Amino acid sequence: MFIALKPQQTLSMPKDFKDKARRLNIPKRLRPVLYAEFLKQPTHDFLTRFKQGLINL
After folding, report:
1. pTM of model > 0.70
2. Which end of the chain is more exposed for a tag (fewer CB within 10 A), N or C?
3. Out of the domains of life, which is the source (predicted)?
4. Which residues have a Cβ under 8 Å from the Cβ of 34 and sit 6 or more positions away?
5. Which residues in 20-40 are b (16+ Cβ under 10 Å) and which e?
6. Nearest-CA neighbor of 3 among 45, 48, 34, 27?
7. Which of 6, 12, 52 shows the shortest CA–CA distance to 36?
8. Vertex 26 angle, CA 25 and 30, to 5°
């Protein structure tokens, strides 16, 4: 699945995803990319596994 975004258009992330990304110190510019990847393979510990290096983009 590919999500095409127009310039200035953002993917609206759920608040819990944003909060968890903020807690894990994931850079702001990387969060929408991670959310798009999360939509492809949704797991409850996606961000934690990414932070540990278990998920590559």
Report:
1. no
2. N
3. Bacteria
4. 21, 26, 46, 47, 50, 57
5. bbeeeebeeeebbebbbbbee
6. 34
7. 12
8. 160
